């Protein structure tokens, strides 16, 4: 039987939930459907609960098809009858008994949506879990709506063009090949692309560009570095920051660490493709033992593991997978990594701390805690909220005193 993209997406969405997968494993229409099942999950779930007495009794593929229908109708209300018919046709080969349920439930939702939406919890309306809604609304009372709306947009992908390649020539060649791309409005080394599959574009295998967001690059460029600086990238895989630093400061010497062997493998592939040589050690940065020398590095970069709330536009599955309890554990690791690596920094040198999260618990509060037992100057500190061209993240630069 030919399996439709719709049913593939519904199945993948279910696995995503159960097996903590990443959306990265899908492509094309299936990826688009699955991403939107995640983006619109909370609102469609609230509508389905109103429309059906016991949704949990139904097969997940039936509920999934109704959810997908909810999203497609919201996106294209003028085609409602066509979409409902299509959802029914998609479920028929798998659960013939459920065609009238899919049809009836979607019609019921369409009829009552406006009324039901009025009584809906705000967190459902904005499509976020309630714990995350509370946190974001608390920390960003003036911006929370913009943040949630940004999370529900399809992401804009971006590529950093490497120094040996002319950005405008590469961009023209992509446009000639029918790629919908444009120059990054704030960086003359980047190209933005609406559709996915950047890694299939000409120049990828040759290492002409690296797929990354502009967000952290502006911060890394604020670091004061001598030409032959010794750089430690403590949470380095799959290599975005290390490769950027190597391109920007080609004579610098970079040492990279990461705890995850699979991600290190990916970093080695990226290094091979970009023709760079950076030693990478598989090590826990909270416990580096005698691998690193004290007072040695001119800059230490800690791109720490985090809740990833800054990149929900690109990874909407994070809204479903992340739990409030995860925060405590991850903030402990962030602080432990910083405490472990602080002594490795030379006197008067800078440490760059970044997390792709916009929760202050993982950003400025971690730095405040570090400050309780270590002396430093906070040279720069900022939370960047997600926007069309930048992921959300927190970044700071702290400087070790020259004298004790
Ligand atoms: C945000 S990602 C780093 C992305 C990378 N800097 C880049 O630009 O491509 C965080 C990384 O921290 C690593 N990590 C998590 N816990 C760690 C630990 N205790 N020690 C070292 N690395 C760790 C993860 O495996 C992950 O690769």
CATH class of the largest domain: Alpha Beta
CATH architecture tag of the largest domain? 3-Layer(aba) Sandwich
Unreliable stretches covering 5 or more consecutive residues: none
Number of helices: 16
What's the number of domains? Answer: 3
C-alpha geometry: globular
Structural class: alpha/beta
Mean pLDDT: 94
Main beta-sheet strand count, sense and barrel state = 7 strands, mixed
Strand content: 15-25%
Q: Can you describe this structure in just a few lines?
A:
The protein has 404 residues and is of the alpha/beta class.
How would you describe this protein?
- This protein is of the alpha/beta class and 404 residues long.
- It folds into three domains: 5-120, NusB-like (N-utilizing Substance Protein B Homolog, Chain A, Orthogonal Bundle), CATH 1.10.940; 153-211, Sun protein, domain 3 (Alpha-Beta Plaits, 2-Layer Sandwich), CATH 3.30.70.1170; 214-399, Rossmann fold.
- The protein is 44% helix and 15% strand.
- It contains 16 helices and eleven strands.
- It has helices spanning 5-19, 28-39, 41-51, 60-75, 80-91, 99-119, 122-125, 130-139, 144-151, 167-176, 215-220, 240-248, 261-274, 318-321, 326-341, 364-373; strands at 157-161, 181-183, 190-193, 209-211, 230-233, 253-258, 280-282, 297-303, 345-355, 377-384, 393-399.
- The chain has a seven-stranded mixed sheet, sandwiched between helices. A four-stranded antiparallel sheet has the order 2-3-1-4, covered by helices on one side.
- The mean pLDDT is 94.
- The site of S-adenosylmethionine has 19 residues, from helix 12, strand 6 and helix 15.
